[in-house]
Amino acid sequence: MRLTRYFLPVTKETPADAQIVSHQLMLRAGLIRQTAAGIYAWLPLGFRVLNRIEQIVREEQDRAGAIELLMPTIQSADLWRQSGRYDAYGPEMLRFPDRKGTEMLYGPTNEEMITQIFLGSVKSYRDLPRTLYHIQWKFRDEVRPRFGIMRGREFLMKDAYSFDLDEDGLKASYEAMFVAYLRTFARLGLQAVPVKAPTGPIGGDLSHEFHILAETGESAIFYDAALEDISRDELLSADAATIARLTSLYAMEEEEHAKVAECPVPAERLRSRRGIEVGHIFAFGTKYSASMGLSVQTADGTSLHPQMGSYGVGVSRLMGAIIEASHDSSGIVWPESVAPFRVGLINMRADDAKVTSAADDIYSRLQNAGVDTLYDDRDERGGAKFASMDLIGLPWQLIVGPRGLERGVVELKNRATGEREELSLESALARLTA
Length: 434
Ligand code: ATP
Ligand code: MG
What we know:
Elements: H1 21-28, E1 32-36, E2 39-42, H2 44-63, E3 67-68, E4 74-76, H3 77-83, H4 85-88, E5 94-97, E6 103-106, H5 111-119, E7 130-139, E8 154-164, H6 167-187, E9 192-196, E10 207-213, E11 219-224, H7 232-236, H8 240-248, E12 251-253, H9 254-259, E13 270-285, H10 287-291, E14 296-297, E15 303-304, E16 307-314, H11 315-325, E17 327-328, E18 331-332, E19 343-347, H12 353-368, E20 373-376, H13 382-392, E21 396-400, H14 402-406, E22 409-414, E23 420-424, H15 425-433
Parallel strand pairs: 3-7, 19-20, 19-21
Antiparallel strand pairs: 1-2, 4-6, 5-6, 7-8, 8-16, 9-10, 10-13, 11-12, 11-13, 13-16, 14-15, 17-18, 21-22, 22-23
The structure holds adenosine-5'-triphosphate and magnesium ion.
């Protein structure tokens, strides 16, 4: 993509209304634009990152055996009356009538809808277990939308729902999602701490939240320092044994921690940090299947209500969490897995025909090799170009200037380490296309 044809409104000024660094950087780097309180447009660069995050989430759901579908954003109030949640949900739910006066709502989550879909088509134990998921916009009329997309009113969520015949099946579905979450966050370059979450009146002990450690996180968590020692490789190859080990280590949100009479972790190993909740998994049993009348025939001819779980990931919130975890004083430092472009190609002298023809040539070679490249072909000072490239945080910068070209070299800069290297054009291209 040529910058002279792109839409990338970057700014030098730190927006006054943005309190945390990820929000500031998202505005400055032209990733998002607020259109109403807690509601954002995803500008082209931000939309590319959102799609990358979404795709990693999707791949790990698929790998775990979950099946993708797409449910609508708008739901009917009657559906929610069946589970009894219409009145229970409160003012976070956006409610409105359609032209006929039928009460509608913008979905904050989809347990009722997926149960209704099952109700119409699943009759036999042979149809279970199944886990279905979708990646869809949600609306919650948060009292205090803040920190940009971190706590928005409209936000993108992956929500999965599992249906099993018995509690052992539910536990297996829950563990498959747990593994998917560990792998997802590791691939996004994040270290996530699984925190035991309260299950409320439904009971059971199967609920975990996944928190990314960051000073700006809204939750306070207490955990065993051993949780910090889990390596990325271990997360990527996680299995039931990994989960058993991770969940045996102490990790609680402040409120729950305060209720613990005697903390099992010795003081020197107890960490207290702030966290951003990026995922929440929850096994709730027959709450919706029983209230909405979903039953299946068992092998011996009786019938039962399937055991269910639901599993959310804050896809849009993840972008904020990634930036909180990976930035420096010059801007964002995208992990390669979600970077909007892999390479930022900088033409230092757009007014010099020789330099421009060399840079154009490199650009087409990168494109032909399938390397996502943002080409700064603007006629601007080098300093301004460096500053905006650093701000938007692409993993590699390839700098083409007149002095280097005379010696047959270009400069390759690694955004994360700041290392710069002079290379022949061919070896630079070889490195970037490898
Ligand atoms: P929170 O405690 O942050 O309000 P929640 O417990 O209400 O979240 P869930 O219902 O568990 O959220 O939703 C699943 C995931 O969706 C959360 O883990 C979070 O990552 C994301 N999420 C929830 N609310 C928002 C929001 N207002 N803006 C962005 N992401 C959100
Ligand atoms: Mg939650």
